[in-house]
Amino acid sequence: MTETRALSPHLGVQVTGVGDLFDDALIGRCDEALKWRGVLLIRGLHLDDEAQLAFCRRLGRVVSLRGREIFTVSLDPSKNPTAEYLKGTFHWHLDGTTDPTPVKATTLTARHVAMVGGGTEFASTYAAYENLPEKERERYDGLRVVHSFEAAQRKANPEPTEKELAAWRRVPAQETPLVWKRRDGRRSLVIGATADHVVGMDPDESRDLLDELLDWSTRERFRYTHEWEVGDFVMWDNTGMLHRALPYDPSSERTLHRTTIVGDEAFA
């Protein structure tokens, strides 16, 4: 019998007793859990690529990157040619903040795990916004933020070569609301490593504000840390869950297979 339990007070749900992964009722419960709890965990599912893709297609259209729908998450360049860029994922971020419509959800299946470190942390920007004092919410409403790939990469590589900088800047920057008014009535914060500056604000004041908000949003009360086991399947609402990988040895065999579901709600 399928059962669920909360992973933390503000986010996350673990599903146990999964029989038929493609049962309509289970798909519906997973979709609801994704919306209201942000992070979904099924331990020991051991999905192969075909099954992972099939499950994701029940929830939406899967992103194809360079003709591939499965992305290998590894710091080994022989497994992942863009391994160097993954160092930026050690910082809190949302995926797709440089796109008009961010991706809806991301899934990971663990094939190999790190001996030490390598967990993944999540933090709910829905809960962070809802728990702000009213005066703070009024302060942030209406502000807009410029997000860039360069801002995120500079956190991992603060002194890039001209070639690296040129590559980063080929990804266009995107302006978003700081407080995203969602079509379901909820509000979330669009912050993280890609947040370069608040539009029209003094640079130092802008940096302080963004850092303060990120610190608030990633406090333990709004956070869940997942320690990977081989076969784990995790899916999260990318539009409202900040996430980051915890450091691990670059020579580790840690390998996750990622799929991404196309977004359906543009920044407004």
UniProtKB/TrEMBL annotation:
Co-factor(s): Fe(2+)
Superkingdom of source: Bacteria
Alphabetically ordered keywords of this record: Dioxygenase, Iron, Metal-binding, Oxidoreductase
Pfam families: TauD
InterPro entries according to UniProt: TauD-like_sf, TauD/TfdA-like, TfdA_dioxygenase
Domain TauD/TfdA-like: 4-260
UniProt entry tagged with the keyword Metal-binding: yes
Single GO MF descriptor: dioxygenase activity
Keyword hit for Iron: yes
Family: Belongs to the TfdA dioxygenase family.
This protein's name: TauD/TfdA dioxygenase family protein
Originating organism: Actinomadura sediminis
